[in-house]
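Structure tokens please, single chain.
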Amino acid sequence: MKKTIIAVMTLLVTISTSAFADDSADSAFGWAVKEDAASAAGSTGERSADTTASKGEESVDATESSAGENVDTAVNATEEKSADTTASKAEESVDTAASATEESVDIAAGTAGDSAVRNRLNKIIPGQTPDLIEQTPYKGLYEVVYGSDIFYLSADGRYLFQGDMVDLKTQANLTEGRRTKGRLTLMKKASLDSKIRFTPAEGKAQHVVDVFTDVDCFYCQKLHSEMDSYTSEGIEIRYLAFPRAGVGSHSYDKIVSVWCAEDQHSEMTLAKNKQKPKERTCENPVKAHMELGREVGVSGTPALVFDDGTLLPGYVPAVQLKKMLDERKAK
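Here you go.
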């Protein structure tokens, strides 16, 4: 019995010791697990912190790099723009200087040429002043104008050219264009009341044509015989005297008689019907008309001068003349 109690007691002690050992082991294991977890958590936190710090540093570096690149780009763009602006201004300055130099050279050359031309003209046409001296589009060649007479002189005054200058690119006769302007100016010398006018019966004339006439000229007579046709087409005819035989001729005396008549229209018709008008003398514009005719280039009669200065020699039927005038007016 006693041995049994001792055995039981021994067994209990063994069990108790084993249980304590197990509890100690469990406790130790638990502390180990806790310590491992804490260690792991600490390690994870440190890695997270390191990663965050690293990313922060990378972000700062990236921001600094981007900012640096932006600054460099802005600086480069500014430098390039400044360089381009400077180069552009330099080119403009060079172009302006070159242009000014060319203009100065042209002006100097033009002045020298004009002087040489004038000196030559004083020698070959003394006592007469030209209406115009102007450099032509062809450098070194000057246009000289005396009324409707035009010729050309080289800039040194050595070479003289006669004839028409034509621009083959535009097909424009530059000389005739100048003559036309000259005639228009010259025709203003003749006052309206110095002309014998045949006007449309009704309404205002659509066109006005100055006609240098001779009472003994066949085509002048023909034109006058169709006067009603011209006026019915709206064309006003204004006669200027140009007796081709000259002062003192029968034609001259007859046309003076016409201009001195009270009824100039009737006397003009009479004279152009080959009848001799009554002889008359008075202060008249016949000589002045003849001089004007020569200045504008009249060499025969009838000679028609349009209101733009165009000279058309010869007879033109009324309908055809009206068409020509309409076309010119439409341009």
